[in-house]
Amino acid sequence: MVQTEDEIRGWFIGNLPDDWFTSEPDMRGDRDEILIIGTLPTPHVDEGSSDETKRAAALARIDRFREETRGHRMRIAQEAERRFDRKVSWGARCGDEQRLFTTLGVPVMTRLRLQEREVLDTLIDSGVARSRSEALAWCVRLVNRHQSEWLQDLRQALSHVEEVRAKGPDAEP
Questions:
Q1: pLDDT in the model for residue 173
Q2: C-beta of residue 99 within 8 angstroms of C-beta of residue 92
Q3: What's residue 2's pLDDT?
Q4: Half-sphere exposure (CA, 13 Å, Cβ side) for 70?
Q5: 34 forms bridges with which residues in the sheet?
Q6: Domain ranges of the chain
Q7: Would the pLDDT of 66 be above 90?
């Protein structure tokens, strides 16, 4: 049975301890992975403390959360992976800092023409990337950063198409 994003979100919200995060976690995913990123309470740091002190405190809070919740997160992930047939990845945000703990690196095959390969090879030759794979990942991150609004509009349009399709003649009553 295929679950909707809302069903998956609800399952996680129901299974995550209420005291882990300050608000509902961010959840996103694709065909391979579900990523859960929760916001942790900001550590109490004196007002006059340096930015470096604040950053170190936030990163320490994330590291502590990671270690203290490891076993419980693994049990939730194992159940979710059986239920949803996707890997579960975790991350935490605290103040301005964010860390992802366990994310997948999924290989993707593509066919590129000479002009496109030249772009990747230029990134390698200039030291931006070590391989074509790394160069392609760099390009995808760059597009995401500079075209995020357009990509978000596209995702919303796709979501609307899925809603309309679900109401079609083959929809379950």
A1: 65
A2: yes
A3: 58
A4: 7
A5: 29, 88
A6: 1-106, 107-173
A7: yes
Contacts of 36-40 with C-beta under 8 Å, sequence gap 24+, read 36/12, 36/88, 36/89, 36/90, 36/91, 37/90, 37/91, 37/92, 37/93, 37/98, 37/100, 38/91, 38/92, 38/93, 39/92, 39/93, 39/94, 40/65, 40/92, 40/93, 40/94
Q: What is the DSSP string of 87-142?
A: EEEEEEEETTEEEE-S-----------HHHHHHHHHHHHTTS-SSHHHHHHHHHHH
> What angle do helix axes 148-166 and 132-146 make, rounded to 10 degrees?
80
pLDDT 10s digits, 14-50? 999 999 999 999 999 888 999 999 999 999 988 888 9
Mean model confidence pLDDT for the chain: 90
* pLDDT at residue 1, as a whole number: 53
DSSP strand pairing (33-39 vs 87-94) = parallel
Is-contact 54 100, C-beta < 8 A? no
DSSP state of 26: E
Q: What is the pLDDT of residue 63?
A: 96
27: nearest Cα among 13, 17, 14, 41: 13
